[in-house]
Specification:
4 copies of one chain form a homotetramer. Chain A is mainly α and 125 residues long. Chain A has 5 helices and 2 strands, in the order αααββαα. Chain A has a two-stranded antiparallel ribbon with strand order 1-2. In chain A, β1 and β2 form a beta hairpin. In chain A, α1 packs across α3 and α2 packs across α3. The longest helix of chain A has 28 residues. Chain A is elongated, with a radius of gyration of 17 Å. The mean pLDDT of chain A is 86. Chains in contact: A-B, C-D. Chains C and D meet through α4 and α5 of C and α4 and α5 of D. Chain B binds a DNA duplex (15 and 15 nucleotides) through α3.
DNA sequence: GTGGTCTAGACCACC
DNA sequence: GTGGTCTAGACCACA
C-alpha cells in the first residue's frame, strides 16, 4: 500500500480498513488480521497498525477478545455506512458544490463523468 | 478567521487566499496586504503569514517587489483554477464516485441536492 | 562551519549540503543527519536547518519518511549535477567570458592557471 | 533594465555602471547622469540610485561637485579593471575550477566554448 | 514603510 | 527518537 504524506499513516490505514469492510473483503463477524500480520502486509511499523486498531476499537468497529484477536463488530458495516453517509451529505457535498461553482464544472458535466465511470467500474472491488 | 487544527495554520491561510483570489476579493495584479497587516487581520504571528506567502511565492501566485510588498502574479487566478480543476477531475471525482457507490447515493439524488444548493447560493461570495 | 553574511545561513547550508552530496560524503539513498544533529554540528538553531531541509524537500533532493527522518532522493546527485551544469553553461560561462574580455584575461592564461590548480588539488574533497 | 532578486538592486546598478565604464559608454572625466535621470532610465526609486552613487563615491569611481553633478574620477576605468582583475584571479577562478571538476567540464571544452563565444561577440557592447 | 532571517523555546503528532 | 508548527521578539537590508 502506498501512503500519502498529507495524512497520518494510521489514519490512512483506518480508511483502508473501512474500504475493506464496505467492499466485503472483511465481512460478517470474522476475525481480522493480527496487528503483526497486517503490519507485514502494509509494510509499516506494528505500532502504527496498533494505533489504527485502537481507533477502530473506540468506534466499536472492531472488538478485541483478549488472547484471541480482533473481530469485526456485528454491525460494523452499517455503522460505517451511516457515519460516512452523514458526513458525505453534510460536509463533503457542500464543499463539492462550492468547488464546482468556483471551477465552472456543471452538474451535467459531472453526471456524464459519473456514467462513464460507472460503466468502467461495474462492480466495486 | 477560525482555524481548524487538523491542518497547519499557514496552509489554511494559503487556502483562504486562494479563495480570496477566486472570488475576486484580491484581483488583477494589485498589491496584497503586507505580512504584518494580514497577521493582524488573521490574529496570527507574522511569521506564520510569512510562511504562507513563501509558499505562494514558490508557486508564483504572488511576486515580491523588494521593499515595496507582494503583488498578485499576472495569471494568478487562472493558474489556481487550472490546478484545482485538474486535481478535481483526476483525484476528487473518482473518489467521489467511489463513495457514492459504496454509500448508495445516486447521481439523481446528488443532482437534486445541487439544485437546491444552487438556489440558496445564487452568487458566490 | 563558517558563515558568510552576504547570504542567508540556510542557503549556505543548502550549498554545503550540495557539496556533501557531490563529494559523496552523503551518498546513495541513505538517511541524512536529523535536523537537531545537523544543527548541533553547524552550531545554528534547528529551525535554520529545518528551513534548508524544507527547500531540499521541495526540490526532491531529500525525502521525508514520517517519524523516521530524511533520506537522500534516489537521483539526488545526478539532479544536482544536471541543474548546476545547465546553470553553469548558460549563465556563468557567458559572464565569465565577458569578464575575461573586459579584463583582458586570455584563454591561454586561464588554461595555465587551471593546470597549476589541478596539480595542487588532485582529488576533490 | 531587469533586476535579479538575489542581489540588492543598488548593487546591481553599481555593476551595471561598472560595465558602462568598462565599455566606454561612460568615459573620460565626463559628467554622469543625474540621480533623477538615471532613476527614470532604470525605472527605480531615486533613493536606490543615490545609494549606488554613494558607494561609487566612496570608492572614488565618481566624484561629486556640489551643485553641478557627478563626474567620473580620472582613473575610474583602470581602478575598476585592477580591482576586478584581482578579485577575478583570487576569488572567482578557484571557484570556477572547483565547479569544473565537480561538474566534469574540461578545460578543452571551456576553450571551445570561449572561441565560439568570441566569434559571436567580436566587439563588446 | 516593506520583506527576510534568525533565535529560543514551546508543543505536537508520529513511528 | 523523528519532523513540523507556532510564537515572540530581535535585527537587518531595502525602497
Amino acid at each position: 500500500m502506498e501512503f500519502n504524506d498529507k495524512q497520518a499513516i494510521y489514519l490512512q490505514i483506518v480508511e483502508n480498513i473501512y474500504d475493506r469492510i464496505l467492499t466485503d473483503e472483511w465481512k460478517g463477524d470474522e476475525r481480522v488480521p493480527s496487528v503483526r500480520d497486517l503490519a507485514v502486509e502494509l509494510q509499516v511499523n506494528p505500532n502504527t497498525v496498533m494505533r489504527a486498531y485502537d481507533l477502530l476499537q473506540n468506534k466499536e468497529i472492531i472488538v478485541n477478545k483478549r488472547g484471541v484477536g480482533n473481530f469485526l463488530g456485528s454491525d460494523a458495516k452499517s455503522k460505517i455506512i451511516t457515519n460516512r453517509r452523514n458526513h458525505f451529505l453534510t460536509h463533503e457535498l457542500p464543499l463539492l458544490f462550492r468547488n464546482m461553482q468556483l471551477l465552472g464544472v456543471s452538474i451535467e458535466e459531472l453526471s456524464e463523468q459519473f456514467i462513464s465511470y460507472s460503466q468502467n467500474n461495474i462492480s466495486i472491488q
